[in-house]
Amino acid sequence: MTADGRRAVPEEDVVDARGKRCPLPVIDLARFVAAHPSAARVLVLATDPAAAHDIPAWCRMRGHRFVEARPSEDHTTYVVDIDVDGQAVRQGSGPEGR
Amino acid sequence: MLLAEPYRHAPRCVRQGPDNVWGVANASRTGPTPPDPGSPVDPSRAPRPRRLLDAASGPLHPVARQTLVAALDAGWADPARLHAEGRRAGALLAQAREVVAAGLGVRPAEVSFLPSGPTALARAVDGVLYAAERRGARTVASAVEHSAILVPGRARAMRSDDPERFAEVPVTRTGSVDLGAWAEEVAVPGTVAAVLQDANGEVGTRQPLAAARALTRPSGIPLVVDATASLGRDEVPTEWDVLVGDARSWGGPPLGILVVREGTRWGWPEARADVEGGRTDVAPWVPLALAAAEAWQQTAVARDADSREARELVDQVRAVAATVPDTEVVGDAVDRLPHVVTFSSLYVDGEALVGAFDRQGISVASGSACTSSTLEPSHVLAAMGTLTHGNVRITLPLGAVSHGRADDVDALCRSLPGTIEAVRGELGAAGL
After folding, report:
1. Whole-angstrom distance between the N-terminal and C-terminal Cα of chain B?
2. Which of B389, B416, B420 to mutate to test the interface with A (most CBs of A within 10 A)?
3. CA-to-CA distance for B407 and B357, rounded, in angstroms?
4. Three-class SS of residue A82?
């Protein structure tokens, strides 16, 4: 929701998953991206410790870019850049295949 | 068999046959499980047998169980006592030690029995650090080591106000230690101990012990190898200076095994010389040691065939799991323990998944955060960068413990795709 007006910075949307436990923060993120195909950068606010591992893993499986985790006092903000082409990445299997 | 006839009783409580021992015992304890209405497994076969696919801490090998029961009569005494009962217990303890030593290819004096595998792991490192006190205090370990290594290591670093005292070496996506980073860490001055698993008990990946030891050996840094997940299931490792095992991995009771190779600098300040070579202050209970040795003998004889079959069963699970949408099979596909397999499914609640399999009579484990008391996911999955939610971990029991394991794996494979989709659907996440 916050765009700071400068073109160089992608528009940021916020998904607030604070207080939710795994796998809900990742589901909230995926649901938001599915509903907002033009989203460029999503900030996920989460308190669940598993999000630190699962949001980067989701980005890898879906072809998005995990930018960083910004810890703050009572939650962490995970920054994800959405790659529109990445929407095509659907099926994940192990790194060594089957 | 380790005990002669006078002490060996009829194994009334041991049932062998098409049902696995654990399934029979558990069904009688909990009663028949009602069929899960949403289950893809045929619900008409009631009462359903329990299917044990989480044998990280499995039932005793049936022969070890007989030996344990017999040893309650023959080996209850304190082996340090001089009377006949004590001498008999002492002789049995020596016999147990000889069996384990021969199995590991070491001398009996190098083998100590400790109360548990994790205790032995922590003691292994303590002993290396104590003996090296004048040269340094730094430990290097992979990021996927057992918590009994990582937690005390981090605590030592915290207490010393020097976070560098405990270095955790990253692993690849498949869980293998990054040898380049390992080389850099063990070369840091003041490093006196290195710890690496033979193979990881959660994801199965084997570690390159020979290459890792080639980097510690020239500097005289003892390599502690954690074989608590692999002994009895895989080749006995040879590239180590201190070796740790747990009799549970080969069908024995919980019992720590600590082996300090002759010539390795190792010491423990609280040692009482008469107990287990000065490596513990708790004398082992002889029946446990004897049951562990019995289980080793039984498992070692069957190991090649057993691990070959387990490897094929795990391959089946890996193949089926890989067909499930958004499911990652975790760990090395080939260079791995024969009996362990782990996978993670996107948008799936691990706790709900364990529950859904349990209602079908299938016991599996999970490394997901919601299944742990701390709400922290498995540090192994986290270190590998794999999805931590929706995780299922399977540890096959020994064939001798669970005669129906091939059938159980078959049941799991039939149920797996439908169960994952059903649990994913519960969260409304299908198709995301």
Report:
1. 57
2. B389
3. 15
4. coil
Contact state of B370 with A22 under an 8 Å Cβ cutoff: yes
Specify whether the CB–CB gap between B425 and B352 falls below 8 A.
no
Q: Provide the 3-class DSSP secondary structure of residue B160.
A: coil
Query: In the structure encoding, which two tokens stand for residue B229, read together?
Result: 């997940």
User: Strand B223-226 to strand B191-197: parallel, antiparallel, or no bridges (unpaired)?
Assistant: parallel
Segment B110-130, tens digit of pLDDT: 999 999 999 999 999 999 999
pLDDT in tens, A11-39: 899 999 999 998 999 999 999 999 998 99
Give the number of other Cβ atoms within 10 Å of residue B263's Cβ. Answer: 8
Nearest-angstrom CA–CA distance, B58 and B254: 10
CA B4 from centroid of its chain's CA atoms: 30
Going from the C-alpha of B61 to that of each of A18, B15, B66, B207, B237, the distances in angstroms are 47, 12, 9, 27, 22
Count Cα atoms within 13 angstroms, Cβ side, for B424.
23
Q: Are B29 and B47 in contact, with CB atoms under 8 Å apart?
A: no
Does the beta-carbon distance from B329 to A27 stay under 8 Å?
Answer: no
Burial grade of B7 (CB within 10 A; 0-12, 13-18, 19 or more): middle
Catalytic residue among A22, A40, A61, A79: A22
Write down the number of H helices and E strands in chain B.
11, 12
Distances (CA, A) of A72 to A24, A41, A75, B80, B382: 20, 19, 6, 59, 21
**Would you state the structure tokens that stand for residue B378, as one six-digit string?**
């498995």
Q: Do B327 and A34 touch (CB under 8 A)?
A: no
Task: Express each pLDDT in B17-30 by its tens digit.
Answer: 344 333 333 333 33
Q: Would you call B322 and A27 a contact, using CB atoms and an 8 Å cutoff?
A: no
At residue B342, the 3 state secondary structure works out as: strand
Sign of CA dihedral B167, B258, B366, B417: positive
ipTM above 0.90, yes or no: no
Q: Can you tell me the distance from the alpha carbon of B359 to that of B51, in angstroms, rounded to the nearest whole number? A: 11
All residues of chain A having their beta carbon less than 8 Å from the beta carbon of residue B174 are 95-96
Would you say A52 and A71 are in contact if contact means Cβ atoms under 8 Å apart? no
- Note if A59 is an active site residue: no
